[in-house]
């Protein structure tokens, strides 16, 4: 191959690779179902989502909320992040008292769109089949459509098609992040980019927007005193190898 042609081909391949890389990192964050456990009135928090964190399976989640129409270069400031999740045993708080809001809170992004959440690695729960570990987000930003979604974790053995929630999107690449141990084996660290667009209006799935008999209507079981010890083995870190 002539040198000039080789250089031209290499340049084209390089540009193509850059375009692919940009498109793969700047993808709209997909919506996901609300689920039965969202509660209005969650307390405002800085970065600690769960009170009295254990000394094991702590999760430090950092990320940035960016604008899709700026090719994900511009962060979105002061975004409301209403976040809720199950505790290690797969139980959600009920909000029935001022002391029963564990692992729930409203946080905000900074002026450049960055956020940081200290929490615990969410437990799985049995709904006739296990859901993968996940964290719920209700995201609102001035001038942007509301986004309700869920965050999942790479290599979880219960990601779709093994997710007990058929309507959930646990196979969406935009909703899956990887975690790793950085400073010690008791702490997981991960990063997640949330991409919003003023032009894109995601479908918001609520408790009443699915037909009766669906996952949302049937699985109403916020039971803070429910004994899930029999399923504890499923809440150890089970991930696919490789």
Automatic annotation (TrEMBL):
Residues 222-236 have a biased composition (Basic and acidic residues). Residues 34-197 form the Intradiol ring-cleavage dioxygenases domain. It comes from the Eukaryota. The keyword Signal applies. Transmembrane segments: none annotated. Keywords: Dioxygenase, Oxidoreductase, Signal. Residues 222-242 are annotated as: Disordered. SUPFAM superfamilies: Aromatic compound dioxygenase. Residues 1-21 form the signal peptide. It holds the Pfam family Dioxygenase_C. GO terms for molecular function: ferric iron binding; oxidoreductase activity, acting on single donors with incorporation of molecular oxygen, incorporation of two atoms of oxygen. The keyword ATP-binding does not apply. Belongs to the intradiol ring-cleavage dioxygenase family. This is Intradiol ring-cleavage dioxygenases domain-containing protein. It comes from Didymodactylos carnosus. The lineage of its organism: Eukaryota, Metazoa, Spiralia, Gnathifera, Rotifera.
């Amino acid at each position: 191959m002539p040198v000039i042609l080789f250089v031209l081909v290499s340049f084209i391949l390089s540009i193509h690779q850059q375009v692919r890389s940009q498109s793969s990192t700047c993808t709209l964050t997909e919506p996901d179902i609300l689920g039965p456990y969202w509660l209005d009135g969650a307390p405002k928090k800085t970065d600690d989502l769960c009170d009295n964190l254990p000394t094991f399976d702590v999760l430090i989640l950092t990320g940035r909320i960016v604008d899709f129409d700026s090719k994900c270069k511009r962060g979105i400031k002061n975004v409301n992040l209403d976040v809720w999740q199950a505790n290690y045993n797969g139980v959600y708080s009920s909000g029935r008292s001022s002391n029963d809001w564990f692992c729930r809170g409203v946080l905000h992004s900074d002026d450049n769109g960055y956020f940081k959440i200290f929490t615990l690695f969410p437990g799985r729960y049995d709904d006739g089949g296990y859901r993968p570990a996940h964290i719920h987000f209700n995201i609102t930003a001035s001038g942007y459509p509301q986004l309700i979604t869920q965050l999942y974790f790479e290599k979880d053995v219960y990601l779709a098609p093994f997710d007990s929630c058929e309507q959930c999107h646990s196979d969406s690449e935009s909703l899956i992040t990887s975690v790793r141990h950085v400073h010690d084996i008791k702490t997981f660290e991960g990063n997640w980019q949330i991409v919003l667009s003023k032009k894109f209006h995601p479908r918001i799935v609520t408790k009443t927007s699915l037909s009766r008999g669906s996952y949302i209507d049937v699985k109403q079981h916020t039971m803070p005193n429910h004994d899930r010890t029999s399923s504890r083995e499923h809440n150890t870190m089970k991930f696919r190898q490789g």
